[in-house]
Amino acid sequence: MVRLSATYVNSCWPTIVGMRRTSQDTKAAILTAARERFGAAGFQAATIRAIAADARIDPSMVMRYFGSKDQLFAAAAEFDLKFPDFAELARADVGGALVSHFLERWEGSDDGEALVILLRSSATNAAAAQRMQQIFSTQLRPLVESLAPAPEVGWRAGLVATQILGLAWCRFVLRLPPVVTMTRAEIVDWVGPTIQRYLGLPEG
After folding, report:
1. Per-residue pLDDT tens for 67-94?
2. Closest CA to 158 of 169, 171, 170, 148
3. Where are the domains of the chain?
């Protein structure tokens, strides 16, 4: 009779558990574990091995389904853009305030790095691109709906997104020197009026 050591059994158990799950169940377990681990430890400290252990599967299964840590993060990411109540602002100030808010979210918040990772990943990963689309469609569009005529909401929200994401891409991903060296106030002064025009609001 062959006896298996406890160490061997314990090392194989995550793989055995993973094999018993369906593909959909395995991916769901990984995503749940990833959201909890990323939320608790942050992107840098969270490891594929730790996430796999939380999901009770072998780390190779995580890589099989998601390819890389960045791609897993993109699939698991959930962000609140935390828009303030722009209704309290003078309508002539909304564009600048929106640009300032986005800069604060990218540069001054704990999850700013995570947003940059998601933006970078969205260029090459379909899950990341879809996640970014969801974030903007479910959070930016309602804001635009409160400011613009109904027939114009879709394309106005889309134009605002092009400006904000283009700015973020150049400042945080490509790191174009002229854009990186600009102060927040300078960016607000230059980009704010464009956002104001996209929203169809009066200029200050």
Report:
1. 988 888 878 877 788 898 888 889 999 9
2. 148
3. 6-68, 86-198
